[in-house]
């Protein structure tokens, strides 16, 4: 089983995160940020990965530290659970419609972290979640996990729909990329940076 558990404690946050890549999409999420909990639950469901996140952060300051540190923990958990990446499909792509929104997510579990993010939001917050934290969360995940990730909102007008489409499409693209399709390292070099 491809599983991992991360404990992250700083002066700003305390996070306990467990991940089962080969799960059933079951989630138990408590970050103190309702909309973020919803997005992580959707990510878990659409990726098919079991995800448990218990986070306590300095929300009296703002949501930044909690969201970013959850991204760091999730990226580390993905990297740890996938190990040498032997047999994975490696690449994932999903284009997801949500009402008026169309979102494209393309990724490569390459060992080379890079984020391209094309989305603009009109609202500053959805509940107590800052919309600018979508990009920060994704950057934290890809840097720690070693993923190249391209996120493009092709069109849309409702910020809730756009962000939800991003998390759902990311889940679907990850599900494709982590699927075992062979017994080989998916690189002509014979290895992927770990």
Automatic annotation (TrEMBL):
Keywords: Amino-acid biosynthesis, Cytoplasm, Histidine biosynthesis, Lyase
Compartment list: Cytoplasm
GO terms classed as biological process: L-histidine biosynthetic process
Keyword Repressor assigned: no
EC number annotated for this UniProt entry: 4.2.1.19
Top-level taxon of origin: Bacteria
CDD domains the UniProt entry points to: IGPD
InterPro entries (UniProt xref): IGPD_sf, ImidazoleglycerolP_deHydtase, ImidazoleglycerP_deHydtase_CS, Ribosomal_Su5_D2-typ_SF
An example Gene Ontology CC term for this record: cytoplasm
GO function term, MF aspect, one: imidazoleglycerol-phosphate dehydratase activity
Pathway of action: Amino-acid biosynthesis; L-histidine biosynthesis; L-histidine from 5-phospho-alpha-D-ribose 1-diphosphate: step 6/9
Reactions this protein catalyses: D-erythro-1-(imidazol-4-yl)glycerol 3-phosphate = 3-(imidazol-4-yl)-2-oxopropyl phosphate + H2O
Pfam families, A to Z: IGPD (PF00475)
Family to which the UniProt record says this protein belongs: Belongs to the imidazoleglycerol-phosphate dehydratase family.
Name of protein: Imidazoleglycerol-phosphate dehydratase
Organism annotation: Faecalicoccus pleomorphus
Classification lineage: Bacteria, Bacillati, Bacillota, Erysipelotrichia, Erysipelotrichales
């Amino acid at each position: 089983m491809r599983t991992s558990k991360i404990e992250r404690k700083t002066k700003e946050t305390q996070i306990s995160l467990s991940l089962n890549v080969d799960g059933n999409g079951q989630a138990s999420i408590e970050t103190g940020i309702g909309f973020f909990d919803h997005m992580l639950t959707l990510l878990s469901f659409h990726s098919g990965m079991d995800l448990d996140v218990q986070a306590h952060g300095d929300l009296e300051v703002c949501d930044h530290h909690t969201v970013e540190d959850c991204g760091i923990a999730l990226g580390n958990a993905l990297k740890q659970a996938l190990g040498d990446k032997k047999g994975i499909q490696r690449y994932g792509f999903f284009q997801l419609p949500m009402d008026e929104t169309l979102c494209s997510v393309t990724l490569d579990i390459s060992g080379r972290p890079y984020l391209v993010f094309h989305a603009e939001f009109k609202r500053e917050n959805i509940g107590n979640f800052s919309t600018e934290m979508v990009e920060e969360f994704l950057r934290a995940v890809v840097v720690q996990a070693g993923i190249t990730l391209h996120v493009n909102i092709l069109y849309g007008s409702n910020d809730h729909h756009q962000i939800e489409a991003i998390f759902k499409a990311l889940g679907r693209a990850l599900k494709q990329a982590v699927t075992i399709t062979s017994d080989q390292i998916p690189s002509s070099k014979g290895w992927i940076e770990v």
